């Protein structure tokens, strides 16, 4: 197996580098990336981002598996070969667009290369993984350092979250109080907050946050797994640019669960296109008044405070540099609609958006009509004016790696459900688990989940060292997209029952669909973040 991997590695590294360099040269203008040139062929740049993300994960998975057991060694080898196969199939289908020659393509399909791929993707390797998974071996979940925290939250997920998950989904109810209280009592809202403000970040790091998120998402994405995303985004923004007074007030209250946060960034006509946002914050005596509409504000009803990205600077030429973050305080509501009026006359209304999944937290469209925010709630004070985009991005990097953990949790739940059903259900006189197509699916589901899990932890460690922003986007992009395949196959293994609400796999599938949309749509992540950064690095290397 190792010889086959070695045959692929140098070739894989060399040819991905060739593609990247060729596309970098084609997109360069004045020694930097031209987005306009990239947009002339978005398809190849989207796939450059995907192939690069998959390669990063494959490389790390191989390295990680070196010190693990045979199951994970087999998983990593298969994953690497599949990634290589995806890459060479994509590049060979349009060599001119990827700026590679016929000789380059021929090298990717030499006899020894084909033999190496065939050896790694042999049925017996998938069978070995499937056998282990069907016996309950999904690979190591975490290091010993985090076993205790995983055990705590696995029990919470199974004993407190799972019993409510299906009811909340079917009836679009609000998150039950006992779930909120369990999460508060166990410190989860403080996982992204330094110890000096009452949090657990110094003790647990971002890996701890990932593990908690994964386990809660395994129990129920919308009623538990996403609870700590909003304080994660707000706390990272405050840590990066808030005043000390703001940190003392808000980080402490967020860590204890005393205050709940929502995020109001997206607008009806401006999602990832932050530069065009229209919601305004006008200066008045003692503070600011916010006017306009924000949408997809998850948890906005129950939240005590909304992070609002608003235009405080009126010069249209400033674009994203004219945005600031204000903390808009409000009463709590569990309802699908809310309406509040301030003594000063400011008005805020919200209406939950009906969605196919991700129910429980509710995502609102929120209208601000002269809603007053005091000066002390302008993040960063006067120094924070025009810095909102950059502070928000600091928060969103954490939100993206956390989304990878949410996707991993849902994939793990789907894989476990598929394994249970495959061992129970008989078709044509045999248990489903005995059929090779089922075994292949289960092996891939477990392999993909473990690859995303372990690379997500590695990115979390990078973020502990104040690195890994692009890697966070890449693992979010990859895990979000692949989660749809994993949950889809879990449904398929259930046959007709997978389409019924009697089994939770239908919920896993519709919940997984949201990952590629929130915290940055996958096309924007691929083209405006991943591919752009990849090409920018290549251009710098060329110069």
TrEMBL record:
Coiled coil: none
Domain Acyl-CoA dehydrogenase/oxidase C-terminal: 386-530
Superkingdom of the source species: Bacteria
Annotated ranges, domain Acyl-CoA dehydrogenase/oxidase N-terminal: 143-258
The keyword Flavoprotein belongs to this UniProt entry's keyword annotation: yes
Domain Acyl-CoA oxidase/dehydrogenase middle intervals: 263-370
Keywords: FAD, Flavoprotein, Oxidoreductase
Cofactors demanded by this protein: FAD
Protein name: Acyl-CoA dehydrogenase domain-containing protein
